[in-house]
C-alpha cells in the first residue's frame, strides 16, 4: 500500500496525548465502521456466505485496493445484517471502538435506503435505541444517528424521511443525510425531500465534493440548504466557493484517510484540509469508514500532525467538531467544560 504524504516527525508522547484527548466525530457510517471480525460473526450467525473460507481471509479482504473493492466490501457487510438484534450487537461494538480513542460524542450515518425493505421501521428503531442505551452505559460514548438516502436509490427518499421522522420522535435520529454514489445523482434530485425535512425540524447534511467537484457542493448548498457538508474537499477547485464557505462557516466533515484511499487526494500530496483551514473554511476531522480505510480518529489527527499541523491547530479542529455538532448549546457547554479540563491537566 502506498505511503501517505508525511513531512514532520511526531514523538510517542505527542501520539499518546492525541489518543487521550477527548474527541467528537460527525462523519462515520455505522455499517462502514463495523470491523471485519464483527461482520464475520454476523455472517456466521445469519448463515450468510462470504467470499472467504476463514476469518483470516476475510480480514485480508479489508485491505483496501480501490473504490470498487471498497463498495463491494461495504455491501457485503450490510448483507450480513439480517435482524434488528444485529444492530444492537454492531452498536455496542462500535461504541467500544469509539471509546478506545476517547470519543465522547458522535453522530453516525445509517444506510437507511438499504434497510427499509429488510426490517419493519418500529423494530429497527427499537433495536437502535437499545444498542445505544447498552453501548453508552458500558463505554460512556454518546451516539445519535443520521439516516441517509442513497443517491442512486432516489425513489427511497420519502420512505427514508418517514423513517427519520419516526426515529426523531423517539430521540434516536438527529437529522437526514444524503450519501451513496455522487456521480450522476446531483443534489437537485432530492430538493423536495430535504425541504420537507427542514419543515419538520430536522437537521440536514449531504455528502458532496468527494467524487464530484464544486458543482455538487453548490447543489447541496443551494438546493438542499444543508447545515454541514460531508467531505467537501474539492471546494478548493473553485475559489468563489471557498470564499462562500469562509463567509458562511458551513462546516465540512473532512475524512483525510478516506480521501487518500479513494484517490480523491494523491498519496504524494499534502491533504487539502491545510489549504481550506488556512483560508478560513470551517473544517472538522472524521474517519468515514475506519476499518475499511485502516484508520481511527486518533490516526486521522496523527496524519495531520505528520503533515505539519501543530498541537494548537489539531486542538482547534477538535473544538470545531463539538461546535459543529447538532447538540443544543446547553449540551455543547458540557463538552466544552470537559475539553477545557483536559487542557488544564
Number of strands: 8
- Helix coverage percent of residues? 40-55%
For the record, the count of structural domains works out to: 1
Architecture per CATH nomenclature, i.e. the level-2 architecture? Alpha-Beta Barrel
CATH superfamily: Metal-dependent hydrolases
Query: Briefly, what CATH class?
Result: Alpha Beta
- Structural classification: alpha/beta
Q: Nearest-angstrom radius of gyration?
A: 19 Å
Order of adjacent strands in the largest pleated sheet: 1-2-3-4-5-6-7-8
The description of the largest β-sheet is: 8 strands, parallel
Number of helices: 15
Shape: globular
Question: What proportion of the residues form beta strands (DSSP E)?
Answer: 5-15%
- Give the ordered list of helices and strands: HEHHHHEHEHEHEHEHEHHEHHH
CATH topology name: TIM Barrel
Mean pLDDT figure: 95
Low-confidence stretches: none
Measured distance between first and last alpha carbons: 38 Å
Write the topology of this structure.
Blueprint lengths: L11 H9 L2 E7 L6 H11 L8 H7 L5 H13 L4 H16 L3 E9 L9 H19 L2 E9 L6 H13 L5 E5 L11 H9 L3 E6 L5 H9 L5 E4 L7 H10 L3 E3 L1 H6 L11 H6 L4 E3 L11 H9 L5 H14 L4 H15 L2
Parallel strand pairs: 1-2, 2-3, 3-4, 4-5, 5-6, 6-7, 7-8
Helix pairs in contact: 5-6
Amino acid at each position: 500500500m502506498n505511503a501517505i504524504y508525511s513531512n514532520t516527525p511526531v514523538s510517542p508522547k505527542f501520539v499518546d496525548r492525541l489518543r487521550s484527548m477527548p474527541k467528537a466525530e460527525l462523519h462515520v457510517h455505522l455499517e462502514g465502521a463495523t470491523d471485519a471480525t464483527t461482520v464475520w460473526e454476523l455472517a456466521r450467525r445469519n448463515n450468510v456466505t462470504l467470499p472467504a473460507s476463514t476469518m483470516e481471509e476475510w480480514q485480508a479482504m479489508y485491505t483496501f485496493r480501490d473504490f470498487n473493492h471498497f463498495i463491494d466490501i461495504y455491501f457485503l457487510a450490510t448483507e450480513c445484517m439480517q435482524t434488528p438484534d444485529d444492530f444492537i450487537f454492531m452498536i455496542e461494538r462500535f461504541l467500544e471502538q469509539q471509546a478506545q480513542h476517547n470519543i465522547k460524542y458522535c453522530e453516525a450515518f445509517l444506510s437507511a435506503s438499504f434497510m427499509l425493505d429488510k426490517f419493519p421501521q418500529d423494530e429497527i428503531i427499537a433495536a437502535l435505541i437499545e444498542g445505544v442505551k447498552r453501548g453508552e452505559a458500558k463505554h460512556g460514548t454518546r451516539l445519535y444517528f443520521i439516516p441517509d438516502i442513497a443517491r442512486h436509490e432516489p425513489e427511497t427518499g420519502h420512505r427514508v424521511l418517514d423513517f427519520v421522522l419516526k426515529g426523531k420522535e423517539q430521540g434516536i435520529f438527529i437529522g437526514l443525510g444524503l450519501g451513496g454514489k455522487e456521480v450522476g445523482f446531483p443534489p437537485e434530485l432530492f430538493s423536495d425531500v430535504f425541504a420537507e425535512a427542514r419543515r419538520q425540524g430536522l437537521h440536514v447534511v449531504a455528502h458532496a465534493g468527494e467524487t464530484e467537484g464544486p458543482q455538487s457542493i453548490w447543489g447541496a448548498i443551494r438546493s438542499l440548504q444543508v447545515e454541514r457538508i460531508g467531505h467537501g474537499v474539492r471546494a478548493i477547485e473553485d475559489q468563489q466557493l471557498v470564499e462562500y464557505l469562509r463567509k458562511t462557516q458551513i462546516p465540512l466533515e473532512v475524512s483525510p484517510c478516506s480521501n487518500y484511499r479513494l484517490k480523491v487526494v494523491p498519496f504524494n500530496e499534502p491533504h487539502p484540509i491545510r489549504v481550506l483551514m488556512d483560508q478560513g473554511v470551517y473544517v472538522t476531522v472524521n474517519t468515514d469508514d475506519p476499518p475499511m480505510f485502516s484508520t481511527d480518529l486518533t490516526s486521522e489527527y496523527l496524519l495531520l500532525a505528520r503533515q505539519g499541523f501543530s498541537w494548537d491547530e489539531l486542538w482547534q479542529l477538535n473544538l470545531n467538531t463539538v461546535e459543529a455538532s447538532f447538540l443544543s448549546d446547553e449540551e455543547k457547554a458540557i463538552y466544552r467544560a470537559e475539553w477545557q479540563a483536559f487542557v488544564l491537566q
